[in-house]
Write a structure and sequence with these properties.
The structure is a homotetramer of 198-residue chains.
Chain A: H1 11-30, H2 38-45, H3 51-56, H4 60-81, H5 88-105, H6 107-119, H7 126-146, H8 155-175, H9 181-196
Helix pairs in contact in A: 1-2, 1-4, 1-6, 4-5, 4-6, 5-6, 5-7, 5-8, 5-9, 6-8, 7-8, 8-9
The structure holds a DNA duplex (21 and 21 nucleotides).
Amino acid sequence: MAVRKRDALTVTEQARRAQIVHAAIDTIAETDYARASFTAIARRAGLSSTGMISYHFAGKQDLIDEVMRTVLADFTDFVVARSAADTAAGRLAAFIVANNEFLREHRNHLVAMLRIQTAAPDSENAGILAASDRAKLADLLASGQRAGEFRDFDTDMMAGFILSLRNGVIARTAAEPGFDLATCTSELLTAIRSATEV
Amino acid sequence: MAVRKRDALTVTEQARRAQIVHAAIDTIAETDYARASFTAIARRAGLSSTGMISYHFAGKQDLIDEVMRTVLADFTDFVVARSAADTAAGRLAAFIVANNEFLREHRNHLVAMLRIQTAAPDSENAGILAASDRAKLADLLASGQRAGEFRDFDTDMMAGFILSLRNGVIARTAAEPGFDLATCTSELLTAIRSATEV
Amino acid sequence: MAVRKRDALTVTEQARRAQIVHAAIDTIAETDYARASFTAIARRAGLSSTGMISYHFAGKQDLIDEVMRTVLADFTDFVVARSAADTAAGRLAAFIVANNEFLREHRNHLVAMLRIQTAAPDSENAGILAASDRAKLADLLASGQRAGEFRDFDTDMMAGFILSLRNGVIARTAAEPGFDLATCTSELLTAIRSATEV
Amino acid sequence: MAVRKRDALTVTEQARRAQIVHAAIDTIAETDYARASFTAIARRAGLSSTGMISYHFAGKQDLIDEVMRTVLADFTDFVVARSAADTAAGRLAAFIVANNEFLREHRNHLVAMLRIQTAAPDSENAGILAASDRAKLADLLASGQRAGEFRDFDTDMMAGFILSLRNGVIARTAAEPGFDLATCTSELLTAIRSATEV
DNA sequence: CATGAATGAGGATTCATTCAT
DNA sequence: CATGAATGAATCCTCATTCAT
């Protein structure tokens, strides 16, 4: 990175960045945003120096931004892959299920994302991503309303509610080790169906 | 505090502590949990040195704990005072409305509380308060179920959902300056009624 | 003290100073020279403010100096009162015995003195007192030599040795709670007699 | 040290640590234990910031412990190397001589050690080292007693006396610039011989 | 590319001391 | 005289970042 612009990263560079990003995710999720220092991240990544991180990232903010980008990309891929359904209601349910499945498989990703969002709200992406996320969900809801599947509600608000519920599930998973995610998912599906159906 | 162990606080001391606590709340809410250093808090409180904070609080954790205690006390008083209603559904609605009213009047209190909860999960109160909060709400829901006002759902889960929704409203208020809280409240009331009614 | 010179202290002033000095002695002896802060001393003295100490003493050094003066005065009085004997050897033995008795009765005084001497050697008195102490003891030894009771040795050196032995006893009493002072005293008497007799 | 936990020290690191340790020794010996702050030590070591010390040592206690270890290792090597003799009395005399020679050549080492021992009694090594030191000397004395070289005395007490005498010599060397160490040594040898011989 | 040593700003905290009441 | 609140310098320590090798 030093001299070269942002355009092309070598394979090695990409691998190193990914390695560091994942170490950062685990460190943030398993300890604390405040305690996720370069030293802690380098240690977890098996790096011998924090200089390595500074070499591959323009600064701490850049690393955090990349963490957000990575988590969101992984998350979106995962959710999109299993959100296919014939009806809007079906896609909404699939979205909820996919969210909770991703949470079960990649707890640290989402916990890290949540911590970054609320602890460092001026991250380049934090706010923007949340908004675009919400916009996509609002579109889904609107299409469901047009199809007569959903009752009449403010789609932006309802999208916000649904994402809040998802965030709440993440927070509770983070805080309570033995949280019953299966029951939660089914209760959540029922609640959201009741709240949205016509 | 220097010499005295801890018995009763003088009037002056209570005033100073309150002043510092409020400066801490505003600093956390308006910048960042990470950036809420003693220096930043002292500057906002108009203190001549960070030593003043250490003089009045046993340490940073003590200050943060007091912030949580203060916010929660104010919040609880406010909500309790306007949660009277004949039915469980009425009390639940009043709870939602009171939450959003408090948020409108004391935005910084709730934003600070939310940031502390997710950024510093080892705070004395953070986890405990969340759990006891949820338990009280679950009780309300259970009494509504017994009275036939609410459908059959897992009360602990539903209580978590409702608090998640509230937290989401706080987060969005924090992130979007012009967020329409009135619309949000009415939409939220409808959604929660739909999700809980029999 | 504020305005008035050093000449006359009122009775109350003297009492306060003595109270503070004794609290300082106990604090230094029971914890650490470094941890003997004004706050710790004031707490032990039952004072409500460290300002009280600053009011009665010109500064920390002044307090420490007064501690040294007090300990030494008490110590000297005690030792002189029981050092009467017909021979120099007798007076030397009485000196040793008196030292160890004082140590048994006023352990904290001597431990504090020792700590101050080695931790803060630039105290006004520390060095001077040690020297004058040694000089007096050397005089005693010289008179014993003239009387033919002691062999020929460098009296200044021997005085230093004897005081070193005494300091060692203090240090060991300070470090080992169950140290057997009685045995130590008798062994010490024998050793010193052997080392000095003709 | 930042990232690496602790395996082997690089050459550079060992050099830096040694440099800092020696700066600490000199600072403690030439001023005061209390005034041996990281700032003072860093200044003397020619470091650009106190952060450098924290980079190489886990904390102040770690530095102080290393100082003790270093001084004691140097001291022990020196003394052991010249304590060979046929008789216990010879080894005792050699011990005394070696002590005073080391003191002449490495005054600061011993002054620092003495100050640490009496000022910071909770140092990892302070008390333990003193006790093990004394035990070794007591063994020597006991073997001399068995060989009929020494009279009957409590070996633990006598060992304590001898170490007290050595500490006294250190203290006096520290306090009096022009102290006559040669005379002191010969007087001390005579005194100890008289006190121990049969 | 990678390493590890170095840097210096900033973190919380403690302390002796001052001063209005 | 006594109180306790206030001050600001100094403490140890952590951190992101830089740079020579």
